[in-house]
Please model this.
Amino acid sequence: MRDRETEFERRKVQVAVVTFENDFLARRYVEETSLPWPLLVDDTRETYRNYGMLTASFWDLWGPKTWWVYSREILKGAELRKSEGDIYQRGGDVLIDPNGIVALHHVGAGPADRPPVERMLQRIDRGSGHHPR
Amino acid sequence: MRDLTGKPAIPFRLRDSNGRIHLLEEYRGRWLMMVFHRHLG
Model:
């Protein structure tokens, strides 16, 4: 998604990243990654729950799709790190339009399940009458 | 979990890593993309 940062900027889309982890880890993550967007801390996980992002099952996490993505990353030369923290908490994406209506609601089934950025951009363009050249 | 597409967004009040409070209402009039991370590790 960060590769497409300018596409979101051009469309004047505000991005907010949400984490359930504590302040210390959140600050460290922002420093380590030079995150260009605010990192909101939802340590009670209330907002996660409100959007149906609950705990994933073992098979959601370790199903064939996950192995496929990890294998591809390894072939590309990526180094996989051991995960810390609650690996069972689901993530997802929620796109909210300027009137406060949910335009896209995606709950990730596992680590590899994210909607394509292209789909989000198309949804924004459709809703704002923007036609990229 | 039902798909909330087309429904009003659920209000939130969350603190960012710099201690600033963010409210859903502040984003009214603009598109907002909320990316819910899994663990940061």
